[in-house]
């Protein structure tokens, strides 16, 4: 009898511990680019349901992945936002730490703006010219070898460009925007250039560290503020921040294409990318509002063509693609390494 009572007491204590461990609020980390969209959904959930407003932190895509993949405990995030797809090594880190049931959600498109103050005349460059402005190593005059980047002014790169100091405020290495910029500007250009491949650089993405490129934190609004104080500089940040601050900053034409919602949605703008968030499905049983948040984020009212998030710069997915992703998320499709390798 005493043993039975002891077992009942232990079970009751375990139940109380489980309840104490359960959380009311969803915890979200990750991309500064996805942050305003995720925050808007969080506020909508808090305003229209009985659930508490989720806590959203801007830690950068890379920083968010580290926190998300740390483990399954409720002291870890339920969701991480990302402005690029999860990397295979991050997926493996999750698996090694027991985070083995993850669902990937794509919420729409965004563009990476290369922008400056509206006090300047409109600027137009090519992807190659941006590469030559920010790369640590560039081709020599004869194109036969790589040398330390000597360019200080845009006119040094091309005489047709203004005689204006090259200063670029951009995201740090923990940022998904930085990853995407390196992929779409640096790797995409250098893989076509023999001088890089002959030197053994198949995926060259080393950014100069001589003060021309200035890592400016995970808060894209701070970069916008820096451009206001230093009109001759350029900044790299998500399109939504360009649209939100269109009275202060302007987007640069890249390869003749302007960063507009239409150009980003069709892929005509060279720096277009998808935005993601990742769900830790094992948390749903203890974080009761997690499913409600995910379902709201993926609803047409938020990410559809006329959705609330389109008002703050999210470019919606084509209808058929959106419906397929909505179904996968509703089914909580389990992410695999093979998915990420596609």
Structural features, described:
- It is a single chain.
- This protein is an alpha/beta fold.
- Helices cover 39% and strands 17% of the residues.
- Strands 1, 2, 3, 4, 8, 9, 10, 11 and 13 form a 9-stranded mixed sheet that branches.
- Strand 6 and strand 7 form a beta hairpin.
- Helix 2 crosses helix 12.
- The chain is globular.
- 42% of the residues are buried.
- The N terminus is likely disordered.
Keywords:
342 residues; 39% helix; 9-stranded mixed β-sheet; single chain; globular; alpha/beta; 13 strands; two-stranded parallel ribbon; 15 helices
How far is it from the N-terminal to the C-terminal residue, by CA? 60 Å
Count of distinct strands: 13
Task: Report the oligomer.
Answer: single chain
Tally of contiguous helical segments: 15
- The biggest beta sheet, please? 9 strands, mixed
Structural class: alpha/beta
| Unreliable residue runs | 1-20
Instruction: Report the β-strand fraction as a percent range.
Output: 15-25%
Give the ordered list of helices and strands. Answer: HEHEHEHEEHEEHEHHEHEHEEHEHHHH
**Judging from the principal axes of the Cα atoms, what is the shape?**
globular
Helix content range: 25-40%
In round numbers, the mean pLDDT is 92
Q: How big is the Rg?
A: 23 Å
């Amino acid at each position: 009898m005493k043993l039975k009572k002891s077992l009942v007491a232990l079970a009751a204590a375990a139940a109380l511990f489980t309840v104490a461990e359960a959380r009311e609020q969803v915890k979200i980390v990750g991309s500064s680019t996805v942050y305003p969209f995720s925050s808007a959904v969080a506020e909508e959930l808090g305003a229209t349901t009985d659930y508490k407003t989720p806590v959203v932190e801007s830690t950068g895509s890379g920083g968010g992945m580290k926190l998300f993949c740390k483990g399954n405990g409720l002291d870890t995030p339920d969701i991480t936002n990302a402005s690029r797809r999860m990397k295979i090594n991050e997926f493996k880190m999750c698996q090694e730490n027991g985070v083995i049931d993850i669902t990937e959600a794509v919420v729409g498109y965004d563009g990476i703006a290369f922008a400056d103050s509206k006090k300047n005349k409109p600027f137009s460059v090519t992807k190659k010219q941006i590469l030559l402005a920010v790369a640590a190593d560039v081709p020599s005059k004869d194109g036969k070898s790589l040398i330390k980047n000597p360019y200080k002014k845009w006119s040094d790169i091309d005489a047709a460009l203004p005689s204006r100091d090259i200063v670029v405020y951009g995201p740090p290495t923990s940022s998904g925007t930085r990853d995407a910029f390196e992929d779409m500007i640096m790797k995409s250009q250098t893989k076509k250039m023999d001088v890089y491949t002959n030197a053994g650089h198949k995926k060259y993405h080393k950014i100069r560290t001589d003060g021309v490129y200035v890592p400016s934190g995970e808060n894209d609004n701070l970069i916008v503020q820096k451009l206001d104080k230093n009109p001759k500089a350029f900044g790299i940040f998500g399109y939504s921040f360009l649209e939100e601050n269109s009275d202060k900053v302007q987007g640069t034409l890249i390869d003749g294409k302007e960063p507009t919602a239409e150009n980003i949605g069709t892929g005509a703008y060279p720096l277009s990318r998808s935005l993601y968030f990742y769900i830790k499905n094992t948390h749903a049983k203890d974080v009761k509002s997690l499913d409600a948040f995910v379902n709201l984020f993926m609803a047409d009212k938020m990410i559809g063509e006329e959705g609330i998030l389109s008002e703050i710069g999210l470019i919606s997915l084509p209808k058929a693609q959106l419906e397929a992703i909505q179904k996968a998320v509703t089914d909580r499709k389990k992410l695999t390494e093979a998915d990420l390798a596609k």
